[in-house]
Design goal:
By secondary structure, the chain is α/β, with parallel strands linked by helices. Helix content is 48%, strand content 16%. Residues 305-468 form the Ppx/GppA phosphatase C-terminal domain.
C-alpha cells in the first residue's frame, strides 16, 4: 500500500492506494483547500497565517497516514513551494508536521507524474495524446503516446495568480475577463507549434480545476454539455452575469472552487484557443495517481531515475567503463564505512556514474561543470533535493573540501564524499581494488589501510594520498594512512 501527498498551490491532497493486478485502487482520499498560493506576501514569502494553515493540514494528514500499513510514502510540493522565498525556512516544520520528507519537484517532473497518472487510466496504448493540467500556480502541457512521454513543459501561470491579477476583489466583468484570456494566451503562444493538434489525436484535462469546469458545464446544461470552447464561452457568459465570485450559484460548484473559477476558465479558454483544441475530455487522475504508480515502479526495481542517469551519460558522451568502475569502487568503499542510513546509497552510485560528464564542457574544472549540470538539468524522476545532493557529491570528488565544508557535518554525506574521492583516486592511479583489500573507517577521524605493494607498483598513489590527507586536515578531520601486507 502506497501514499501520495500533493502540496498544491490551491489544495493539499492525499491518496492512499493499493496495487491490484493492473490497477491502482484508491482506498482513502483527503483534501484541504489550504490556498497556499494566496498566502504569498508582496515579497514572495509565505505569511505566518499561510504557514499555520498548512501545518494544521499536514498534521491532519499525518494522522491519516499513521492509520494505514504503508510500504512507501511520497510527499511532493509544487509551484508555490518552488517560488516561495522562505520555503527553506518553512520546510523543516512542514516535514515534522507530516512526518515524511517533502520533495519540491520541478514543473517538468510535475508534468511527467501527471501524465503517468492519466495514462494509467486510459486503455489505448497506441493513442497519441495531449494532457493539460491547470494548477493553482502553474500549468503543464504533456505530449505522449500511450504510456510514453514525448514532450513536457511547465508554464508559470495558474488559477491563483490569474484570479488575483484580474479578479482580485471577486468582481467578474466582460472586459476584464477578455483581458485575462488575452494575457494567458500570451504565455502559450510560443509553445503553440510544439503542441499543434497534428501531433495528437485526443486531448485530456486532468486537474481539479478542469474537472470542476466540466462539471459546471454538464450539470448546468451549458453550451453543448461537453468540455468544448462553445461550452466554455457559455460558462464565461454565465460567470459575467453573476458579476461576482461570491454570487456564483451553479449546480455542483463548491464554494472554494467558485473563488478561482474565473481565473481557471480564462486559462483553459486561452490554451484551447492558442493550441486549436476544439474539445477535451476530463479525466479523474493526475499528479497523485502518477506518484502512486511511480512508487509502485520503484518497488518493482523499475526506477525511472536509472534511465535518466543513463540518458544523461549518453547525452554528454560519458565513458561508461570509467563511470562504472568508479561507481563500483565508491559503492564498495561506502559499504566499508557503514553509513547510518541507506539514503545516500543510490545517490552516490548515480553521482559516480555522472562524475565526469563535465568533460563535455571542459577538462579544466570538469567536476564544477558536472556539478552545475546535475543540479540544474531536467532529470526525470529526481527531486530538486536529490539533484542538489548528487551535485554536491560530484563537486566534492576532487580538490579542496571547503566548498562543501558545512555539509560534511552530516556523517553519511561525509562518508559518501570520502567513498567517491577514493574511487576517483584509485581510477586515476590505475588501481583495481576489491573491498576486502582495504580497511577503512570514519568516525571522528578517517583511518585507511592500504597494501604496501600498491605504493611501489603505482608511484602516484603516495602523492594522491598525501593530497587527500591535506584536504581532510584542512576541514578539521584527521586522516590517518597505514600500510599493511
Amino acid at each position: 500500500m502506497f501514499a501520495a501527498v500533493d502540496l498544491g498551490s490551491n489544495s493539499f491532497r492525499l491518496h492512499i492506494g493499493r496495487h491490484d493486478g493492473e490497477v491502482m485502487r484508491i482506498v482513502k482520499s483527503a483534501r484541504d483547500p489550504v490556498r497556499l498560493g494566496a498566502g504569498l506576501d508582496s515579497k514572495g514569502n509565505l505569511t505566518a497565517a499561510a504557514m499555520e494553515g498548512a501545518l494544521a493540514s499536514l498534521t491532519r494528514f499525518n494522522a491519516i497516514l499513521s492509520s494505514y500499513p504503508l510500504s512507501a510514502v511520497r510527499v511532493v510540493a509544487t509551484n508555490t513551494m518552488r517560488i516561495a522565498k522562505n520555503a527553506a525556512v518553512f520546510l523543516p516544520a512542514a516535514e515534522a508536521a507530516i512526518g515524511y520528507p517533502i520533495e519540491i519537484i520541478s514543473g517538468e517532473e510535475e508534468g511527467r507524474l501527471i501524465y503517468m497518472g492519466v495514462a494509467s487510466t486510459l486503455p489505448s496504448a497506441a493513442e497519441r495524446r495531449l494532457v493539460l493540467d491547470i494548477g493553482g500556480g502553474s500549468t503543464e502541457l504533456i505530449l505522449g503516446k500511450g504510456p510514453e512521454i514525448e514532450q513536457v513543459e511547465s508554464f508559470s501561470i495558474g488559477t491563483v495568480p490569474q484570479t488575483m491579477s484580474f479578479f482580485p476583489d471577486g468582481h467578474i466583468g466582460a472586459m476584464v475577463f477578455d483581458a485575462a484570456v488575452l494575457s494567458a494566451r500570451s504565455r502559450f503562444e510560443d509553445a503553440a507549434s510544439t503542441y499543434t493538434s497534428e501531433r495528437w489525436s485526443a486531448a485530456y484535462g486532468s486537474s481539479g480545476t478542469i474537472r470542476a469546469i466540466a462539471d459546471a458545464i454538464s450539470k448546468n446544461g451549458l453550451g453543448d454539455g461537453a468540455l468544448s470552447l462553445k461550452s466554455m464561452e457559455a460558462l464565461k457568459r454565465r460567470l459575467i452575469q453573476f458579476g461576482h465570485a461570491g454570487k456564483i450559484d451553479l449546480i455542483g460548484m463548491k464554494a472554494d472552487r467558485a473563488t478561482s473559477m474565473a481565473g481557471g476558465l480564462a486559462i483553459l479558454i486561452a490554451v484551447m484557443q492558442e493550441l486549436g483544441i476544439k474539445s477535451m475530455k476530463p479525466v479523474d487522475a493526475g499528479l497523485r495517481m502518477g506518484v502512486l504508480w511511480d512508487l509502485q515502479l520503484r518497488a518493482t526495481k523499475r526506477d525511472r531515475r536509472e534511465q535518466s542517469v543513463h540518458d544523461f551519460q549518453l547525452r554528454f558522451h560519458a565513458d561508461d567503463a570509467r563511470a562504472c568502475r568508479v561507481a563500483h569502487t565508491a559503492n564498495a568503499m561506502f559499504a566499508l564505512l557503514k553509513p547510518a542510513e541507506d539514503h545516500y546509497i543510490k545517490l552516490l552510485n548515480w553521482a559516480a556514474l555522472l562524475h565526469e560528464i563535465g568533460l563535455a564542457v571542459s577538462h579544466s574544472g570538469y567536476h564544477k561543470h558536472a556539478a552545475y549540470m546535475i543540479e540544474n538539468a531536467d532529470l526525470p524522476g529526481f527531486t530538486t533535493r536529490e539533484q542538489r545532493a548528487m551535485s554536491s557529491l560530484v563537486l566534492a570528488q576532487k580538490g579542496s573540501l571547503r566548498k562543501v565544508g558545512d555539509a560534511l557535518h552530516e556523517g553519511d554525506f561525509a562518508k559518501a564524499v570520502l567513498a567517491l574521492r577514493l574511487a576517483v583516486m584509485f581510477l586515476h592511479a590505475r588501481i583495481d581494488i576489491e573491498a576486502e583489500e582495504v580497511r577503512l573507517k570514519m568516525k571522528n577521524r578517517i583511518e585507511i589501510e592500504l597494501r604496501k605493494e600498491w605504493v611501489s607498483a603505482h608511484p602516484t598513489l603516495a602523492y594522491w594520498m598525501e593530497k587527500e590527507k591535506e584536504a581532510w586536515d584542512e576541514v578539521g578531520i584527521d586522516f590517518s594512512i597505514r600500510l599493511h601486507g
